[in-house]
Write a structure and sequence with these properties.
- The complex is a heterodimer of chains A (about 450) and B (about 325).
- By secondary structure, chain A is α+β, with helices and mostly antiparallel strands.
- Chain A has three domains: about 15-160, Beta-Lactamase; about 205-310; about 310-455, Histidine kinase-like ATPase, C-terminal domain (Heat Shock Protein 90, 2-Layer Sandwich), CATH 3.30.565.
- Chain A has helices spanning about 10-60, 75-80, 155-200, 220-270, 275-305, 315-335, 350-370, 425-435, and strands at about 60-65, 65-70, 90-95, 95-100, 115-125, 125-140, 145-155, 310-315, 335-340, 345-350, 375-380, 385-390, 440-445, 450-455.
- In chain A, the strands form four sheets. In chain A, strands 4-3-7-6-5 form a five-stranded antiparallel beta sheet. A five-stranded mixed beta sheet of chain A has the order 9-11-12-14-13.
- In chain A, strand 3 (about 90-95) and strand 4 (about 95-100) form a beta hairpin.
- In chain A, helix 1 packs antiparallel against helix 3.
- Chain A starts with 10 loop residues before the first helix and ends with a strand.
- With about 325 residues, chain B is of the alpha/beta class.
- Chain B folds into two domains: about 1-125 and about 255-310, 3-Layer(aba) Sandwich (D-Maltodextrin-Binding Protein, domain 2); about 130-250 and about 320-335, D-Maltodextrin-Binding Protein, domain 2 (3-Layer(aba) Sandwich).
- Chain B has helices at about 1-10, 15, 45-55, 70-80, 90-100, 150-155, 160, 175-185, 190-200, 210-220, 230-235, 265-280, 320-335, and strands at about 25, 35-40, 60-65, 85-90, 115-120, 120-135, 165-170, 205, 225-230, 240-245, 250-260, 305.
- Chain B is globular and about 60 Å long.
- Classes of the chains: A alpha+beta (about 450), B alpha/beta (about 325).
- The interface of A and B includes residues 74, 80, 86 and 89 of A.
Chain lengths: ~450, ~325
């Protein structure tokens, strides 16, 4: 029954990977978005200050006697002080001609009256941010345009950005780790109903083919209803085969019994010796067929039952004693003494029909092979495990076959002349194994066989 | 004017070496394989012990120490940035602009408080206040003026005594004088009134603190405004009849700064020299080893403030601002 399924991939892994992968993607996206947003904000901050500087310089520009004077305040540059001591460049142009400041500062074509223009650029190998604005000065007979540009390197901005980046990176990693936790939680929550279903089905008894009644999530509904459907069909088919076995046993055994009784009757009436011989051979053959058919059906029944073990609480001693009572008449015919040695009570959880069948086969075997006027000792004990020992004084097992005798239809080389199908030990062994036990065959040192049936 | 000067030295490089240095001193063996060229505005007498201590235990290194005024340092260095390894000046604004313009090397592993350095390139190593130096004889009753306001009153009280005997920096010539004047002007209107009073008394204008002290010593000057106190303190011989007054209204304190040039050939030695300067100033006061005042925190309990190393120092270096300021100053002082 322990078949391994054809497994390909894992729902849990797929779900976890999807969730974690998604979380990683979102983390990275968050990092990029927040960082660029922060960069934008930081840039805006710098732009504001540059704008203030430009405006304060531009405001100070006046025309005096036709000459442009720009007596800008100390604060125009003081506000540009940064943590990283960023470099400051500026230029004041009058109608496109440099009035003062840095000649190499990039010139932004500024529109008069427009707002302050911001551009990024490069100055003396350093990356800079530049703000520029223009104003028209009107004198008595002069109209001139003054353009002020102030630029600043971006060291402090870079430091701020790096700090933000590393902070955002930490947040991203934290978010990701949190997502991994949530993902594993979500995965196990999602998978749990499936595991519960698996568990409940594995735990079922052999004959429990009732539909799954516990509620399952919507997505598992179709699976469970197919399963229920399948089990219903299986249950039907099982009860049919049980009926078939019972029917077959009945159909085969009853005619054989009729034939035997007819043969017996005929034997009484026939007087010619050769005819009587033939009839006796016939009766023996019928006995053998009847027994074989019985054992075959027993075996079929046992094979069916071992797959669907029905354990119940039993007293092994009671079963053995019951068996001995039923077999005593047969034993007495050969003057064989059946002795039971046992503890008061040996409790086992086992299938009673199987157990009775197995034990009857063992004692039957012992009876068959025991010589006349001998003793069969049946020992029932609870330790080390529940077990039954059947010892006889017969010829014992052929030593070279002792390990294979329980194989189906194999008979001992010294068994010629004894009626048997070769299924007795097989049935006993199957029953023992179905209960998780063993059947051990031994020869007693003082002669005779010993079979140890343990559960 | 500056551009003209630059052009001239470019055309006549030989003329540069015929430069009229205030002082030029060579320290260490003449045959040394490495030569550290220091361009400075500080008199050699102050730097000799510092350089000697630096060279002690070093082989194969010599120091060429050139001294010239702060304004000229800016001109000379801009014209020949390859010719010097370390630039030292008291004109913080000019120094800061040189660094801003990319002439300085960044030294990342120098441990210097933030207020005493800029861009890890420009390092301050002294704090020196601008002072008023007076001849005690001019104030016989011991009423030496303690602030600019008192000085104005004293000068106005005896114009015939002080006429032609007051002096200050010629801000058109001296970078440090210009720095002091602009910072004073930022701080208070009193500065302009003082300049007007001094101008009215026919103030004499000087290029350097040293010359002013000379004239104070000889008695030609009775009052000198914005003299470097450290220079007076170094002249023990004049201490008797001169008094150094730290104006109580608003003292202006500058920091002497140094930077290693970006084009230096002896980077390691130049960095070591700046490191040496910073180490020397932080040692316990010892005039024989470090004759300059050491660095003091930005502001102390008495409210002394130090000119901040910030880009705003470039404000008054703007030609338009400078033109306006000089015009105003000239109209006040030169009447």
């Amino acid at each position: 029954m322990r078949e391994t399924a054809n497994v390909s991939g894992s729902l849990r892994a797929r779900l976890a990977l999807t969730l974690i992968g998604g979380a990683a993607g979102i983390s990275i996206l968050m990092f990029v978005v927040v960082r660029s947003y922060a960069a934008q904000i930081a840039q805006q901050g710098q732009d504001r200050i540059l704008e203030a500087s430009v405006t304060s310089i531009l405001d100070a520009a006046i025309l005096r006697d036709g000459v442009v004077e720009v007596d800008f305040p100390y604060a125009a540059f003081a506000i540009l002080g940064t943590e990283e001591d960023d470099r400051v460049f500026y230029a004041i142009h009058q109608d496109g001609a440099l009035l003062s400041g840095y000649e190499s500062l990039p010139v932004v074509p500024a529109r008069v009256g427009a707002e302050v223009t911001h551009v990024s650029g490069e100055m003396r190998g350093a990356s800079i941010r530049l703000a520029s604005a223009s104003r028209i000065l009107v004198g008595a007979d002069l109209r001139t345009q003054v353009t002020v540009s102030v630029a600043q390197t971006r060291d402090a901005l870079q430091v701020t950005l790096n700090r933000i980046s590393s902070n955002v990176a930490y947040y991203g990693v934290g978010f990701f780790l949190l997502s991994v936790l949530v993902a594993s939680w979500a995965t196990s929550t999602t998978i749990r109903p499936l595991e519960r279903l698996t568990h409940s089905i594995t735990r079922r008894g052999p004959k429990d083919l009732t539909p799954v009644a516990q509620p399952v999530p919507q997505e598992m509904g179709p699976l469970v209803s197919s399963l229920n459907n399948f089990m219903a069909r299986l249950s039907t088919s099982l009860s049919q085969s049980e009926d078939f076995i019972a029917e077959a046993a009945h159909r085969v055994r009853t005619p054989l019994a009729t034939v035997r009784s007819h043969a017996e009757t005929t034997l009484q009436r026939v007087e010619r010796e050769d005819n009587r011989q033939a009839l006796r051979a016939m009766v023996r053959a019928i006995d053998e067929s009847s027994r074989a058919a019985g054992q075959l059906l027993d075996h079929a029944m046992i094979t069916f039952r071992t797959d669907h073990l029905e354990r119940e609480a039993l007293d092994l001693v009671a079963i053995v004693q019951d068996l001995v009572i039923r077999l005593t008449p047969i034993a007495e015919m050969k003057d064989i003494a059946l002795t039971v040695v046992s503890d008061a009570e040996v409790n086992v959880a086992a299938d009673s029909i199987l157990l009775q069948n197995a034990l009857r086969n063992l004692v039957d075997n012992a009876l068959k092979y025991s010589p006349v006027e001998s003793e069969i000792v049946i020992t029932v004990s609870a330790s080390p495990g529940p077990r039954v020992l059947v010892e006889d004084e017969g010829p014992g097992f052929p030593p070279d076959q002792i390990n294979n005798l329980a194989t189906r239809f194999l008979r001992g080389t010294n068994a010629t002349g004894t009626i048997g199908s070769g299924l007795g030990l097989t049935i006993a062994q199957d029953v023992a194994q179905a209960h998780g036990g063993t059947l051990r065959l031994e020869n007693r040192p003082e002669g005779g066989a010993c079979v140890i049936f343990s559960l | 004017m500056r551009y003209f000067f630059s052009l001239m030295v470019c055309l006549l490089p030989a003329a540069l070496w015929a430069q009229d240095w205030e002082e030029h001193t060579h320290f260490g063996p003449l045959t040394a394989e490495r030569k550290l060229r220091v361009l400075s505005s500080t008199d050699t007498s102050f730097f000799a012990p510092i350089i000697e201590a630096f060279l002690r235990g070093k082989t194969g290194l010599s120091v060429d120490y050139f001294v010239i005024g702060t304004a000229q340092i800016d001109e000379i260095y801009r014209a020949h940035p390859n010719d010097y390894d370390v630039v030292i000046s008291s004109a913080m604004d000019l120094q800061l602009k040189l660094v801003n313009d990319g002439y300085a090397l960044q030294i990342s592993n120098l441990d210097q408080p933030d207020w005493a350095q800029w861009r890890k390139s420009l390092f301050a190593f002294t704090s020196e206040p601008a002072t008023v130096v007076v001849n005690r004889a001019a104030f016989p009753d011991g009423a030496v003026p303690q602030s600019r306001q008192e000085l104005i009153q004293a000068l106005r009280a005896q114009p015939e005594l002080f006429r032609g005997r007051v002096g200050t920096y010629d801000v058109r010539e001296s970078g440090l004088g210009y720095l002091f004047a602009t910072q004073d002007a930022r701080a208070s209107e009193t500065f302009w009134r003082l300049m007007e009073v001094m101008g009215g008394l026919g103030a004499r204008l000087y290029c350097c603190s040293g010359d002013m002290i000379d004239d104070l010593e000889s008695g030609e000057l009775l009052v000198a405004y914005n003299v470097l106190g450290s220079y007076v303190a170094a002249r023990l011989d004049v201490a008797d009849h001169l008094e150094v007054v730290l104006p109580s209204d608003f003292p202006t304190t500058m920091m002497r700064t140094a930077f290693v040039t970006a084009q230096t050939f002896v980077e390691d030695d130049a960095v070591a020299f700046v490191r040496h300067l910073l180490a020397m100033q932080s040692q316990p006061r010892n005039r024989d080893v470090f004759p300059l005042p050491s660095l003091k925190p930005m502001s102390d309990a008495s409210g002394h403030t130090v000119i901040t190393l910030e880009p705003a120092l470039m404000t008054y270096l703007d030609p338009l601002k400078r033109r306006t300021f000089i015009k105003e100053w000239s109209s006040a002082v030169i009447q």
